[in-house]
Design goal:
alpha/beta, five-stranded mixed beta sheet, 3 helices, three-stranded antiparallel beta sheet
Length: 121
């Protein structure tokens, strides 16, 4: 299975190939869905929690990309990065536009890449 391309990104909207339009999303080889922060109690601070990433990690990705938002307001604590790396998965964290570009390059190269992306602040 290949990781779906993120076809477009604008403030508050992402369109994922074969999926749909999302405000925030999770993507992995073979699928995508909305990223609902309420599921884990995530907020801009303290930021992305290991629980936010478990679904994507369980899909067998080798790299996980995190998009912190257009203005990088969403925090990514070091313990979250450590959690990903402890599972032998590379963790890449960027501003969302750059994160989507990196993710799409990896997906186009056939890498087993997943990600979580915040499309606003």
């Amino acid at each position: 299975m290949t990781s779906p391309k993120i076809n477009s990104l604008s403030w508050g909207s992402m369109h994922v190939e074969g999926g749909g339009r999302y405000k925030d999303c999770k993507v992995w080889p073979g699928g995508s869905r909305a990223w609902d922060w309420r599921e884990t109690g995530t907020g801009h601070r303290p930021g992305v929690q290991p629980a936010d990433l478990e679904e994507v990690l369980k899909k067998g990705v080798n790299t996980l990309v995190i998009g912190r938002g257009m203005n990088e307001v969403l925090q990514v604590p070091q313990r979250t990065i450590d959690h990903v790396q402890s599972q032998g998965v590379e963790c890449v964290v960027h501003q969302t536009e750059r994160a989507v570009d990196e993710y799409n390059k990896m997906a186009a190269a056939g890498k087993k890449v997943g990600g979580v992306f915040h499309s606003t602040c």
